[in-house]
Amino acid sequence: MDNFFERLSFWIERMLAIAFMAAVALSFVNVVGRYLLGQTFIWADEVQIYIMIWMAFLGAVVVSWRHMHLRMDLLFKMLPARLRQLVSLLELACMIVLAGVVLFLSGQYAYTMFILNRLSDVAQVPMWIPHSGVALGFGLILLIALRHLWQVFYPPERGPAADSEGAL
Question: Are 43 and 122 spatial neighbours (Cβ–Cβ below 8 Å)?
Fold first, then answer.
């Protein structure tokens, strides 16, 4: 399972890099068009916003897997080990509840946009596409949080080397 999330994080990072380059290229083309040609793609800003939405929520998946959240942990680090474990478990429980709620609500909303066939005002992008980025991101974060919770109660084995050490 960990290997799956590592590969997923690797590919998400690559997709985010490509999406970022596409957004920058789109912006560059629009700037050149505006100042040199007097023409712009009026839909470009809208598409860039949708790219950024996907980048934010899929980037959060990678951050969640790698435990790279921004946190104020000065007080946390001063707590005794058992209390730190309890606080970490509480954080994980909150993350699971929050991710589950956001997944449910954003999934419902994206589905509603799909059923209504709602399109964006300028670019005519189906609105379920940008909204599904939120649901996908929080769905993956929920799976990652559940995996982390599983590891709290069932820590990973040290591997075959641990077994051979005990046999000596």
Answer: yes
pLDDT value, residue 161: 52
Structure confidence by residue, pLDDT tens digits, 72-87: 888 888 999 899 899 9
> What is the enclosing helix (H) or strand (E) of 41?
none
Condensed to tens digits (0 to 9), the pLDDT of residues 11-60 reads 999 999 999 999 999 999 999 998 998 888 889 999 999 999 999 999 99
Contact predicate 99/143, CB 8 Å = no
Q: Is residue 166 part of a domain?
A: no
pTM: 0.84
| The residue type at 135 | A
CA distance 115 to 143: 26
DSSP 37: I
CA end-to-end span of the chain: 31
CA distances for 152 relative to 90, 106, 129, 147, angstroms = 12, 28, 35, 9
| Number of folded domains that form the chain | 1
Q: Give the domain extent around 118.
A: 2-155
- 41 and 29 in contact (C-beta within 8 Å)? yes
